[in-house]
Every structure is written in C-alpha cells, then in structure tokens.
C-alpha cells in the first residue's frame, strides 16, 4: 500500500523541525545573518516582489527565431558577425571644446526629475535646481555689471592720460627742434674752417711765436711788414735747399723708402707749401760751398727773422709729409661710429679674439681681458688703413721717428679688411664667397699686389680664416656664403 500525501507532508514537517532545531543549536535566531533570516524565518511573501523595467531590460531573452540554427548545408558557410559596440578601429565622436553653459546641466537635471516623478517624488532636488537657476541669473548680472564698470574705468583712464600724452608729444617735438638747431650750429664751424683753409692756402705758414705776436697790437706793424715782403724766386729757394746745413743730397736711403705712416692730424689737413719754397729740379751746376754755421748771436734775432729762416730749413721734409693717396684711402674706411654695436657684434668680436687674436695683435698678454667691440673695430680699422711692410733690405734698414708704431704685413691688412666688410653687413654679417674674394682682391690691388688680384691669394685669405674656425662657408641656394662660425 503506497503512502498517502498526508504521510509524506508529515514526514517533511518532521524533517524540517529537526533541521530547524539543529540550526538553532549552532546559531541563535537573534544572531542569524540576513540571508539565513530571509530563508528560515521571513515569510515567503516578503521575499517575492515585482521586477522593475530596468531589471527586465538587463535579463530580457531574445526571440529564438532571430538566431536560426545553421543546418547541415550551411555548416561550411562563413558569416560576418555584427557587433554594435565600440571598436578600436572606429574614431570617437568629435568633442567640442566650447564651454558648456550652466543652464544646459540644469535643464538635464530638471528633465530627469520630471521623468522619474511618477516613480519617486524628488521635491528637495527640484527646489535645489530652481535655486541654482536663480543663482546663475544673479551671477550673470554681476558679471555684466563688473564688465561695464571696467569699461567705464578704462575710458576715464584714457581721458586722464590724454593731456599727458599731448604734453609728451610737445616735448618730443621741442627736443627734435633743439637737436636740429644744434646740428646746424655744429655744421657752421666746419664750414667756416673750410672757408678759412681755402683762403689761407696762398699764405705761408708762420711759427707759433709769430702767431702769438700777431694777435697783439704792439706787433701789428711788424706783422704787416713781414707779410708784405715779396716772395723769394725759385732759384733762391733751391739754393737754400742745397746749402741747408746738415742736408746731404747723396743720401738716397730715405728717398726710396716707403713713406712712414703720417699722424692723424696730417692725414686730415696737410699744411700747404708756400709758393716761394716749392722745390725746383736739381741743377747740373756745381753746388756752392757750404757756408759756416751761424754765430751764437743768431739766437737773439727777431721772431720775424727766425720764422723766415726756420721755414726753408724744414722744406726738405715737406714733400714726404703729404700722404695724399693714404688720406683718400683713409676717407673710404668706415669709422667705428657707423657700425651699430649689438649682441651679435659682441659675440663676433669675442670669436675674433679667441681664434685670431695673435694675428691682429701680436705679443698680446693672454692674461689681460680682450677689449670690447668698439675698440676692437677701431683697431681693425687702424690695421686696414696702415701701409704694409715690404721685405726689401732697403726699407727694413730705414730708421724713422715712428719705429715704435706697430707694422703690419699685407696678410694681416687683408684679414682686417675682410672682417670689417663682414661686420658691416648686418643683420646676417655674411657675404657671398665671390664677393669676399672681390673685396680682398680690390684691397690688395690698392697696395699694388698683383698676386692677390688674380684670385688665388684672395681665396687663401678666406680659407685662412676658415682654418682658424673664425668663419665658415655654407653651400646652398646655388652659391657659397661666408659666415662667422659662432
């Protein structure tokens, strides 16, 4: 006889009671965890609840007909699997870098509140959103007011600065007018000096004593009589030159030597020779005997006689004191004031002293700091305007008054001329290689060196600077450019 349903229920109840009693012995009911309490003690109706829409969307099962089972015929068929998610091959949507207005966030929050109002009312959040709306409006109004106040302050400041600007402009115009007047006044003395020099060319130079005495009223008559004396004929001048004491015409060591560098004042304005003392060609006559030296009483002669005697004695030196070609060449050389001293020029000068300091200034003390840009440029110009020394024994044995002055060879003069030409080519301070050779060749031609004028010597000067790492030759654009190696 099979057991009935009631018997089975009784047995299940007994097993459940026994199980419950055993569990109570292990853990008390008061300390049971939430899961144990929900399974053993909570009514089953409290556990069961309705699922929400979001949970149903997470665990929804698709229709089986959407994914048919492949049959035997399509077992070897390859299909493309569609994946709607993002992949690394797809570019992300472009993001706008424009700032987002705060009202946009508030509108989104308000939309969420209205959408879920039926599920859960959110009155506090709604009040908070409306307060934020009012705060945003107040902030915008304060920003607008601050902007308007700043604009008004700028306008007032501009109005207050306008008189000062006008006053500054007037001061600038006044200073410019004063500068123009000063330039005019500075140009007037130079013009007067030129006119005085042109009027005094026909007048013989007088000694310093006679000039001082000419300004006093006591010696006015003597000065007038001195200048009214008729000029001496040329034969007398030649006899004076021939009979001059201590002058030997047979000594040709000084006549064939190269002219010594004249001082700066003689280069600018050489004193003209009076017509009466112009040297005449030497005559074939036998020179007259040398007169005896003057007696000691000649020391007490009048200043006019001293001037008339002293002037012919200096006549043999006058032809050598007229360096006309060098004065013209000196005017072509730029002055240091025409070159603008910049940071690049200072770097170039430092590079020159580092690489070729011994060439432009021999026997220089290495412990002494080299000069700055302006003195260095003046030193290069001094080398450029000097006369090169020759290697002949006749010139090397000549002794002049300027033996202490430094002498420069043609190589040093050409290097100085090339460096000055490159420094005077801002802002790149460079020139084409062909032009550099032309500059060096033209400078060498002025001194009469045909070897440098051909082209090989000019290239040697540039390559010498390249070997010293002072300059470099860059090739590009169809030409070669010589630049400083900074």
Description:
It is a single chain. The chain has 486 residues and is mainly α. The protein has a domain at 324-391 and 405-484. The protein is 54% helix and 3% strand. A three-stranded antiparallel sheet has the order 1-3-2. Helix 13 (343-360) packs across helix 14 (373-385), helix 14 (373-385) crosses helix 16 (410-423) and helix 17 (433-446) packs across helix 19 (456-467). The radius of gyration is 55 Å and the shape is elongated.
Tell me the layout of helices and strands.
Blueprint: H1 5-26, H2 34-41, H3 44-47, H4 53-58, H5 102-115, H6 123-199, H7 208-214, H8 220-227, H9 234-243, H10 264-268, H11 303-313, H12 324-332, H13 343-360, H14 373-385, H15 393-396, H16 410-423, E1 430-432, H17 433-446, H18 450-454, H19 456-467, E2 471-476, E3 479-484
Antiparallel strand pairs: 1-3, 2-3
Helix pairs in contact: 5-6, 13-14, 13-16, 14-16, 16-17, 16-19, 17-19
Give the termini distance in whole angstroms.
Answer: 119 Å
Helical percentage: 40-55%
Secondary-structure element string: HHHHHHHHHHHHHHHHEHHHEE
Q: Would you report the number of β strands?
A: 3
Q: What general outline do the C-alpha atoms trace?
A: elongated
Largest sheet, spatial ordering of strands: 1-3-2
SS content category: mainly alpha
What keywords describe this structure?
single chain, mainly alpha, 486 residues, three-stranded antiparallel β-sheet, 19 helices
Quick synopsis:
By secondary structure, the chain is mostly helical. The chain is built from 19 helices and three strands.
């Amino acid at each position: 006889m099979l057991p009935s349903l009631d018997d089975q229920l009784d047995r299940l109840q007994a097993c459940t009671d026994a199980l419950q009693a055993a569990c109570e012995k292990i853990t008390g009911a008061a300390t049971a965890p939430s899961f144990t309490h929900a399974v053993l003690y909570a009514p089953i109706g409290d556990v069961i609840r309705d699922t929400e829409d979001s949970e149903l969307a997470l665990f929804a099962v698709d229709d089986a007909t959407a994914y048919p089972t492949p049959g035997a015929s399509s077992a070897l068929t390859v299909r493309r699997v569609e994946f709607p998610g993002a992949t690394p091959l797809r570019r992300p949507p472009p993001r706008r870098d424009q700032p987002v207005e705060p009202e946009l966030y508030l509108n989104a929050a308000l939309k969420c509140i209205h959408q879920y109002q039926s599920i859960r009312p959110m009155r506090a959040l709604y009040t908070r959103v409306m307060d934020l709306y009012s705060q945003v409006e107040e902030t915008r109004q304060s920003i607008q007011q601050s902007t308007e106040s700043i604009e008004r302050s700028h306008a007032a400041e501009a109005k207050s600065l306008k008189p000062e600007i006008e006053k500054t402009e007037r001061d600038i115009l006044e200073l410019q007018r004063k500068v123009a007047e000063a330039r005019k006044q500075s140009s007037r003395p130079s013009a007067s000096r030129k006119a005085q020099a042109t009027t005094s060319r026909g007048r013989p130079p007088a000694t310093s004593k006679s000039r001082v005495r000419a300004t006093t009223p006591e010696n006015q008559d003597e000065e007038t009589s001195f200048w009214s004396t008729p000029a001496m004929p040329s034969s007398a001048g030649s006899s004076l030159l021939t009979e001059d004491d201590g002058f030997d015409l047979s000594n040709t060591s000084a006549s064939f030597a190269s002219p010594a560098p004249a001082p700066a004042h003689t280069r600018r304005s050489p004193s003209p020779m009076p017509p009466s003392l112009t040297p005449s060609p030497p005559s074939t006559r036998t020179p007259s005997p040398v007169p005896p030296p003057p007696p000691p009483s000649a020391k007490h002669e009048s200043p006019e006689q001293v001037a008339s005697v002293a002037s012919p004695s200096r006549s043999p030196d006058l032809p050598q004191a007229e360096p006309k070609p060098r004065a013209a060449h000196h005017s072509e050389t730029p002055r240091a004031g025409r070159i603008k001293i910049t940071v690049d020029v200072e770097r170039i000068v430092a590079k020159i002293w580092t690489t070729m300091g011994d060439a432009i200034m021999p026997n220089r003390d290495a412990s002494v700091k080299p000069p700055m840009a302006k003195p260095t440029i003046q030193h290069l110009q001094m080398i450029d305007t000097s006369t090169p020394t020759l290697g002949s024994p006749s010139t090397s044995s000549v002794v002049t008054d300027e033996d202490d002055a430094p002498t420069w060879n043609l190589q040093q003069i050409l290097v100085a001329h090339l460096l000055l030409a490159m420094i005077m080519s801002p802002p790149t301070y460079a020139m084409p290689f062909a032009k550099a050779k032309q500059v060096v060749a033209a400078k060498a031609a002025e001194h009469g060196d045909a070897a440098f004028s051909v082209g090989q010597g000019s290239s040697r000067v540039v390559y010498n600077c390249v070997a010293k790492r002072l300059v470099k030759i860059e090739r590009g654009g169809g030409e070669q450019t010589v630049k400083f190696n900074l």
